[in-house]
Design goal:
By secondary structure, the chain is mostly helical. It has 13 helices and 2 strands; from the N terminus they run ααααααααααββααα. Bound molecules: fe (ii) ion (2 copies). Pfam families: PaaA_PaaC (PF05138).
Length: about 350
Amino acid sequence: MAAQNLQSVPAEPTGQAPASAATTEADAAGQAHFDRVIAEDSRIEPKDWMPAAYRKTLLRQISQHAHSEIIGMQPEANWITRAPSLKRKSILMAKVQDEAGHGLYLYSAAETLGQTRDKMMDDLIAGKARYSSIFNYPALSWADMGAIGWLVDGAAICNQVPLCRASYGPYGRAMVRICKEESFHQRQGFEILLELSNGTEAQKQMAQDAVNRWYAPALMMFGPPDDDSPNSKQSMAWNIKRFSNDELRSRFVGMMVEQVKVLGLTLPDDQVRYNEDTKKWEHGPLDWHEFQEVLAGRGPCNAQRLERRREAHDDGAWVREAAAAYAAKQLNKQKEYAA
Ligand SMILES: [Fe+2]
Ligand SMILES: [Fe+2]
């Protein structure tokens, strides 16, 4: 899946209460180490001192990214039973399973910042946490599996490859593996569209319709325009984010322009052009009001996605209980052996 470039929380002062001289000294040394690591473009690890705002920003970003991965399973899981062949069914199942794995890596990375997975999950199912707005759109036809893979996973790759160099070690390392799998996801989506495009006229129309519906939401995955993204600057200063939203969006459009020709389809945007002066790809206007509405929970499928997540969480209660009971039993055994 795909993590959209979710707004990170604003930078804020550490806001610590007056500390003892020893604490102040430790903080000063920690800050100096942190500044040096960032200046060297090296990595901060979980046990390192870090500014409270850096921790909070990362926790917000990584948990939102994790939520996006697991909510992102839903639009495609919806089509597993209706895949047109055994081959397509097994590929789609593998892809959806990959997304669950991405969620797992990212929840684990977020936990290293001091948040429990239970709390993150509670926030998600209570509707308090955000996830990528793209997954609140419905997957209406089999061709949507192609468009999601090609456009949504494609945008995710554009967004996430630079995150492999994020300054927080566990996040960057998780992204390396995720990006490899996202490449497979995009490829399988492209291949679905290619086959449909070379099929009957009705199949080609279905592919074009899916591209038409997913194009603009995919472009909005990069987040609001730079002028309207005040927190990006701080994230870039911390080497979490490497390129601005508009820069990444422009690169993505450039990639899609070439690939859509191979597909024999078109992008639903007659304003795509390469600007020789800025050396950037430009696109038509996007509906940012719609983006904000979907992000605020008023998209076509928000309620359904959260309801399904709640049901899945409840259905999985026995698995969590069994795993906890097994872990307790193993711990007791170890204690008995040690005694
Ligand atoms: Fe994916
Ligand atoms: Fe993913």
